[in-house]
Amino acid sequence: MIDPPPARPPAPPVDPKSIATDFDWLVYADATFAGLAILIPIPFVDALLEEYFRRRMARDIARRRGRTLSPAVQREINRRRGEGCLAGCAMLPLQLIIYVLRNLYRTVVYVLSVYDASEKLSHYWHRAFLLNYMIGRGHLDDTARASLAAAALERTLATTQTSPVLNLAGEVIETARHQLRGLLRAIYRFVRRREETAAMKQTRTTVAARWAEFGDYLIELAGRYEATYAEVAREREAAATAAAAGATKP
User: What whole-number distance in Å separates Cα of residue 106 and Cα of residue 10?
Assistant: First the structure.
């Protein structure tokens, strides 16, 4: 007979005062560049840079905290969920066509690019905040917890439809879109030398000055992630219990 897995003990409550809500550039730098990458008017280069910075986020945030994530944990947190390999391969030609048409349309109607970039930048700022929170909670210490945390992260982000951060993201995008050469130079210097251009320093200062406005919202976002993490854990425990019960049937 196969025993069902033991129930997980409830996680201790989080003191809101312990949640880091300040704007630490080393936590949010990759997120900022991932969001700004969509402004680059070079097909495929924008998507490649976005994915490059997206995949760096967890690793660099962990380093900022003096931690190291295992390769397996990094793969788990960076894996895009919701589509299997077969489905993803089958949809690739259609996605490519949509991507090319979208880039052509953005060239004609640049407002769409600004709106997309604002949403992207807001999304990646949310993701950076939650990754920093997850690392502090120990949710990325091993592959098993990272699997739960990654699923909870994606679900939390997917259900975050409105955010006060979006307005600030729009202001940053509106400024950056008039300085595309400066943006390319800032990306190059950050990737090659971990240096900031004068324009990027100004962007960082502007965002940091406004970031305190979002303290209560970010604490609430962390609470929603915690509730989602517990929900995902319960779902998996129920599935494991059902599988164990099924294995005992003749």
Answer: 48
Quick: pLDDT tens for 143-171: 999 999 999 999 999 999 789 999 999 99
Instruction: Compute the C-alpha angle 160/110/200, nearest 5°.
Output: 70
pLDDT in tens, 79-89: 886 544 444 44
Helices assigned H by DSSP within 109-179 = 110-137, 143-158, 165-176
Taking the alpha carbons at both ends of the chain, their separation in whole angstroms is 11
How far apart CA 70 and CA 81 sit, in angstroms, is 20
- pTM, entire model: 0.84
By CB atoms closer than 10 A (0-12, 13-18, 19+), residue 65 is middle
Q: What angle do CA 135, 140, 145 make, to 5 degrees?
A: 135
